[in-house]
């Protein structure tokens, strides 16, 4: 088959039907990335942008896109000033992931700032290490590990995403960047979408998996890889001979890892699975409430508002209250009026700090953490409320 664009022999087949030559495929994919940024009209010329790299597939291709974009010499040039950041995870004990990112950046003559994720434990902003893995303070990293160990794997996976976002934002401020680019692939976003729904974060989906995360008032997180399919990424890596570091940082035996297996297995036989999930995400909007109550101190999403309608939270509370009640009281729960009473009377022992400084998802997480292991600066956030 010949290339759809230029008519020369095509050896790249997309979606089992569209044929391209390698040149047109690479040009097209780069164009798709720039078009995604362009059509969303968020970035302006010469904005400082923090690009967060994990070293995985999406991150490797994003780095290549940025290099191509800023090296262009035409009106299509990507006019941003990129800064690169890698957060070294505690699972990456050997540092192989960090070494990979340093190597990928060095090949393109970019500098990369590296920080350890365990810095979350500290309240200040430690300096980053340029093109080097920073020395790890054992006490800090042990404290961080103990904190993570104190919670179930599902809570840990959920919290790690919030921690990384917190560090990205903190270092964006530090490096004078108003924008952050992250490289989640459609597959990651599909898994995050379903996990967020299951964790009771339905109202936060736009911020968690949309193109644009507007939680912080000054610093916006953009996800420019969200329209590039896994198939395109894999072909791109192969043709350009790039070498990503493959590894999943999801903790096993968790809700997210089960959803991950479910989505990728289904995708094998039903190639439209992931794109369908992601398209559904775009249709779920955030209900903007004029009576804003403030932000959750952990995830920075809007705190849930007490609406006149019954919510899943009211149902959970009702069910728990009924289950805990004495049998002779059961008749009293027959009336809907009592359901409303329970809804308004938030039980702080079931959902600590809910609506005062934590959203539903973070309150549920908080109830499963060992508070004594929590970093001091996070504990203080609750005292001030
Ligand atoms: Zn062609
Ligand atoms: Zn929250």
Automatic annotation (TrEMBL):
<comment type="similarity">
    <text>Belongs to the CTU2/NCS2 family.</text>
</comment>
<protein>
    <recommendedName>
        <fullName>Cytoplasmic tRNA 2-thiolation protein 2</fullName>
    </recommendedName>
</protein>
<dbReference type="GO" id="GO:0016783">
    <property type="term" value="F:sulfurtransferase activity"/>
</dbReference>
<dbReference type="GO" id="GO:0000049">
    <property type="term" value="F:tRNA binding"/>
</dbReference>
<comment type="function">
    <text>Plays a central role in 2-thiolation of mcm(5)S(2)U at tRNA wobble positions of tRNA(Lys), tRNA(Glu) and tRNA(Gln). May act by forming a heterodimer with NCS6/CTU1 that ligates sulfur from thiocarboxylated URM1 onto the uridine of tRNAs at wobble position.</text>
</comment>
<comment type="pathway">
    <text>tRNA modification; 5-methoxycarbonylmethyl-2-thiouridine-tRNA biosynthesis.</text>
</comment>
<dbReference type="GO" id="GO:0016779">
    <property type="term" value="F:nucleotidyltransferase activity"/>
</dbReference>
<dbReference type="GO" id="GO:0005829">
    <property type="term" value="C:cytosol"/>
</dbReference>
<dbReference type="Pfam" id="PF10288">
    <property type="entry name" value="CTU2"/>
</dbReference>
<keyword id="KW-0963">Cytoplasm</keyword>
<dbReference type="InterPro" id="IPR014729">
    <property type="entry name" value="Rossmann-like_a/b/a_fold"/>
</dbReference>
<dbReference type="GO" id="GO:0032447">
    <property type="term" value="P:protein urmylation"/>
</dbReference>
<dbReference type="Pfam" id="PF01171">
    <property type="entry name" value="ATP_bind_3"/>
</dbReference>
<dbReference type="InterPro" id="IPR011063">
    <property type="entry name" value="TilS/TtcA_N"/>
</dbReference>
<dbReference type="InterPro" id="IPR019407">
    <property type="entry name" value="CTU2"/>
</dbReference>
<keyword id="KW-0819">tRNA processing</keyword>
<dbReference type="GO" id="GO:0002143">
    <property type="term" value="P:tRNA wobble position uridine thiolation"/>
</dbReference>
<feature type="domain" description="tRNA(Ile)-lysidine/2-thiocytidine synthase N-terminal">
    <location>
        <begin position="49"/>
        <end position="243"/>
    </location>
</feature>
């Amino acid at each position: 088959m010949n290339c759809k664009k230029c008519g020369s022999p095509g050896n790249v087949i997309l979606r089992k039907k569209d044929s391209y030559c390698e040149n047109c495929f690479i040009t097209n994919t780069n164009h798709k990335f720039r078009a995604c940024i362009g059509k969303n009209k968020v970035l302006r010329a010469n904005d400082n942008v923090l690009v967060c790299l994990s070293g995985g597939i999406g991150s490797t291709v994003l780095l290549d896109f940025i290099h191509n974009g800023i090296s262009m010499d035409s009106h299509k040039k990507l006019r941003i000033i990129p800064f690169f950041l890698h957060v070294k995870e505690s699972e990456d004990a050997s540092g192989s992931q960090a070494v990979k990112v340093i190597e990928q950046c060095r090949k393109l003559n970019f500098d990369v700032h590296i920080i350890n994720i365990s810095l979350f434990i500290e309240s200040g902003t430690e300096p980053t290490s340029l093109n080097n893995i920073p020395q790890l303070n054992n006490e800090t990293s042990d404290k961080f590990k103990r904190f993570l160990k104190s919670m179930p794997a599902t809570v840990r996976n959920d919290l790690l995403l919030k921690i990384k976002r917190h560090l990205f934002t903190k270092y964006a401020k530090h490096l004078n960047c108003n924008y952050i680019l992250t490289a989640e692939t459609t597959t990651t976003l599909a898994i995050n979408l379903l996990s967020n729904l299951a964790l009771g974060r339905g109202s936060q989906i736009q911020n968690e998996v949309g193109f644009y995360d507007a939680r912080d008032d000054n610093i916006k997180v953009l996800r420019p890889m969200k329209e590039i399919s896994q198939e395109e990424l894999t072909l791109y890596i192969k043709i350009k001979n790039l070498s990503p570091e493959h590894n999943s940082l999801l903790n096993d035996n968790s809700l997210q890892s089960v959803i991950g297996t479910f989505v990728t297995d289904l995708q094998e036989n039903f190639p439209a699975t992931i794109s369908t999930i992601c398209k559904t995400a775009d249709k779920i909007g955030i209900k903007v409430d004029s009576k804003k109550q403030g932000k959750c101190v952990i995830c920075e999403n809007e705190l849930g508002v007490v609406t006149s309608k019954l919510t899943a939270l009211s149902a959970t509370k009702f069910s728990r209250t009924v289950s805990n009640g004495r049998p002779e009281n059961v008749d009293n729960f027959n009336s809907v009026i009592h359901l409303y009473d329970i809804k308004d009377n938030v039980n702080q022992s079931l959902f600590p700090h809910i609506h005062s400084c934590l959203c539903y998802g973070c309150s549920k997480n908080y109830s499963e953490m060992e508070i004594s292991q929590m970093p001091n600066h996070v504990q203080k956030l609750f005292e001030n409320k």
